[in-house]
Amino acid sequence: MNGSVLTGQEKLIFKLRELFSGAGYKRYRLSKFEDYDLYSGFKDFLVSEDIISFTDIGGSLKALKPDVTLSIVRSAKPVPGRTEKLFYDETIYRPSDGSFKEMMQCGLECIGDIDQSCVLEVLKLAAASLAEVSPDYVLSISQPDIITDAIRSLDLIPEKETELLKLIEQKNISGLKAFSDKLSEDGRDLGNIADLAFLCGDPDDVLGAVKALGLWNEKTEQLKTLCDGMKDSGLTKGLRIDLSAGCTTKYYSGIVFKGYISGVPKEVLSGGRYDALAARMGKNCGAIGFAVYLDALERAVDAPGEAPEADAADARMLRIALPKGRLGEKVYKMMAAAGFECPDAVSENRKLIFVNEEKGVSYFWVKPSDVAVYVERGAADLGVCGKDIIMEHSPAVYELLDLKTGICRMAVAAKADFADDPGRPLTVATKFENIAAKYYASLGRDIDIIRLNGSIELAPLLGLSDVIVDIVETGTTLRENGLKEREKIADISARLIANKASYEFKGEAVARLTEALGKQV
Hints:
The chain is α+β, with helices and mostly antiparallel strands.
């Protein structure tokens, strides 16, 4: 076939097919449709519960497949003492950015007797898959049981255990400190568990730190064996350990790994052991696999020249998005006091990007509501935005630090004489639709949301709504207009956020800035 007429994505598919088949894996072809029941019973294992379903001409409920692994495991017929090795390149259908999208995946699955040599083989193939795209990659591996086993010793209720795991996976320094303080009030000590969230980097360094914390066990020994195996194969250049990765996932059980390519703002490969999923589907066997997200790589493989070349300077330079206005000015002063100043950023000029190469930072100013977009999409490594933006839009970023500035609260307010009638839907005016919906869903209250972009306080005064959900700082505007704060939904303040891929490639620089900035809080 003439390679010149193939897209970069198509070329990569052929390379991965050759890689997997050369390792003894057989190609597996799936139907475009599956019985809806396959997914309805395993929604907690899916990336999203939203599935495209339809009724076929025979009256059966079908679905466009949102996942490949479930189909393969369902059809697997494991035989004791044997391992079934399969690879695939398939289209899946998942929601993304508010709508369903057709996505291409290429990956492999091992089902049957899975030992450490099999796990190591899969890790090697994951690294080789990333190397087919770029030599500048990171394969980040984890063993979430190391953290979950440590947390079980705290004897937390399930809700609190889930909360702690989320804080650890988010690497949320401020949230972990607050959690630890509350735990201390009950006479319990979080101990060194919080430290595990930030053990991320060179495998020898991370494993050495785990041993120093006194948390060495069978799981860490298995992780060390895998890392030693990768080292013996000369595959340590892009290898990292991130113990917090995969803490909250229900899909994987055991080893978890993610792959990143320099210049691509999100993970491009994800995999791990999923014995629990196999068992739930009635398969008494081990299982491990991974998927390469070809759509995430489209720009990197179709127009490789557009991806910036990584060099020593770029590896340490942090791109930081600051919100325009008083909040951003306060945060910049904190950054400068922490040793990351860039005087041009606050001087009168027409520049858009302000660089201090000596300090390893570049700043740019954007609308407050856009900061999370720049960070999530990888245009910025770090950014500062309000907790309200994080709650409303749930960007795929790390929430590293509460900066304790821009303090206010998200609240429900209404006219002072308002009396709620539970017999009818409550009309809520707000620009924070998701926050309002989640809050009232937690109360089991039926609501009708009216989206407004400004002058929210007018809505109850003119009879447009019963209540409003909005940010309240002092409450003066509410009082002067005959409104009363009724319920506080959440405390709001400025948060330091990080792009997840940037954290993998620039982790040391991010850690230095976060630590220094934390001392200014």
